[in-house]
């Protein structure tokens, strides 16, 4: 991205210079009149300053960027910084208020500014299957310092623009008298906000609509609803496995997760499906010897299903258990619930999951947990062998925004959702249409 501040004798001339230097697609960020030159403050000439930017190439996320980084605010370190920020906020508020007399102008400005850093789930980099085969791009070292300098120069402008967009978003959503956004759109965005959907997801939805509709007039509430449904379903669709059929080469299904999220019950449900529908010979192993009743619970399920179960307390026990169960098609492994905010437990489970046997690894998370806590766990497991998640206790919550947040911000595949204690009925593959209906309040 290139940014420029152009100073000229007239506004038409400044705008013409912007087009010449940045191209026809340049986006104007700010314009103002200034006075330059003179002696002792006298005889200064009136000039016009235009700040603009253009995007030369689409940015590429680095290999490790599996998720969208949380947007950070401008860091204020001194009293001067704070005063400058307050002044900038006041200027932005005045500009936005002036736009309220022309809703279409504000709508257009927001739509243009949204192109600076277009965020979408389709641009999230997926985990690299074979990192050794990835060839690093060649870097032109002669241009490296220049690129760094340009990026450093553009960062303050991007921060200011993001801040302006956020204020515009709040204005458009909270000042319905301005009629900047259709009342139907405001209604559904507020519904999603009440469901706990993040600001980034709401901005993405609004940006998608702005791409399709160049004017705010003539959009019916029903059209808006249908468009939002489609956008949300597309977000979910990107995070659903093509198939939940377990490969014939897979020997072990590991299920990890915090204490009390329903790992054991989920394993019983999944194992039942493999026994009854796929006709596989299934066995179970549990390492959860610390929680009272955990072993007995899994033994009860194993007895009902008539499958063998091994209880392991050490690496040696696990090795012997795998030998004992070598003739079975599939082994479900129930692990000890841990507080994975503690690094020692996270490192331990990662080592456990890296065993050389062909396996699939699931992280079980409860939908009754705050999204902020789920976010921390998902970030910690990004570098682990876990690629799929099971969301439990769907029936115990009425807030479904967490599911959309996970699908938008993280690369995990949302494989299953559990919605009750009954085995094996209360587990289902993720259904984008049904989840969207719950989010928008069409199903209760």
Automatic annotation (TrEMBL):
Q: How does it sit in the membrane?
A: Peripheral membrane protein
Q: Which controlled-vocabulary keywords does the entry list?
A: Bacterial flagellum biogenesis, Bacterial flagellum protein export, Cell membrane, GTP-binding, Membrane, Nucleotide-binding, Protein transport, Receptor, Transport
Q: Name one GO cellular component term.
A: plasma membrane
Q: Where is it localised?
A: Cell membrane
One annotated GO molecular function: signal recognition particle binding
Region: Disordered; residue ranges are: 120-152
Name of protein = Flagellar biosynthesis protein FlhF
| Source organism of this protein record | Pseudoneobacillus rhizosphaerae
């Amino acid at each position: 991205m290139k940014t420029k501040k152009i100073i000229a004798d007239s506004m038409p001339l400044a705008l013409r210079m912007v087009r010449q230097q940045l191209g026809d697609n340049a986006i104007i960020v700010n314009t103002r009149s200034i006075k330059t030159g003179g002696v002792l403050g006298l005889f200064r000439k009136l000039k016009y300053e235009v700040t603009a930017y253009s995007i030369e190439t689409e940015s590429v996320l680095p290999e490790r960027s599996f998720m969208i980084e949380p947007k950070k605010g401008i860091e204020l370190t001194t009293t001067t910084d704070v005063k400058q920020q307050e002044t900038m906020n006041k200027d932005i508020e005045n500009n936005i208020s002036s736009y309220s007399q022309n809703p279409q102008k504000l709508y257009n400005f927001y739509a243009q500014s949204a192109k600076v850093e277009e965020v979408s789930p389709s641009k999230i980099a997926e985990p690299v299957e074979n990192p050794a085969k990835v060839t690093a791009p060649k870097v032109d070292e002669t241009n490296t310092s220049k690129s760094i300098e340009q990026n450093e120069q553009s960062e303050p402008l991007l921060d200011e623009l993001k801040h302006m967009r956020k204020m515009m978003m709040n204005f458009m959503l909270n000042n319905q008298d301005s009629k900047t956004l259709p009342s139907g759109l405001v209604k559904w965005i507020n519904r999603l906000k009440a469901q706990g959907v993040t600001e980034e997801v709401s901005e993405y939805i609004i940006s998608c609509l702005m791409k399709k509709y160049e004017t705010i007039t003539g959009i019916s509430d029903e059209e808006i609803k249908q468009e939002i449904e489609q956008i949300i379903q597309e977000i979910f669709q990107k995070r659903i496995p093509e198939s939940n059929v377990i490969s014939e080469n897979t020997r072990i299904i590991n299920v990890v997760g915090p204490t009390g999220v329903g790992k054991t019950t989920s394993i019983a449900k999944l194992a039942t499906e493999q026994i009854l529908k796929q006709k596989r010979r299934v066995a179970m192993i549990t390492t959860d010897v610390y929680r009272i009743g955990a072993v007995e619970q899994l033994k009860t399920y194993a007895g009902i299903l008539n499958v063998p179960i091994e209880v392991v307390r050490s690496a040696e026990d696990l090795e012997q258990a795998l030998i004992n169960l070598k003739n079975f098609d599939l082994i479900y492994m129930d692990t000890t619930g841990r507080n994975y905010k503690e690094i020692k437990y996270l490192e331990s489970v990662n080592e456990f999951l890296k065993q050389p046997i062909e396996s699939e690894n699931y992280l079980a998370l409860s939908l009754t947990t705050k999204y902020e806590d789920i976010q921390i766990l998902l970030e910690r497991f990004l570098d682990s062998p876990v690629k799929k998640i099971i969301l439990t206790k769907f029936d115990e919550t009425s807030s479904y925004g967490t599911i959309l947040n996970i699908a938008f911000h993280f690369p995990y595949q949302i494989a299953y959702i559990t919605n009750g204690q009954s085995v094996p009925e209360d587990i289902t593959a993720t259904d984008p249409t049904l989840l969207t209906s719950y989010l928008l309040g069409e199903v209760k």
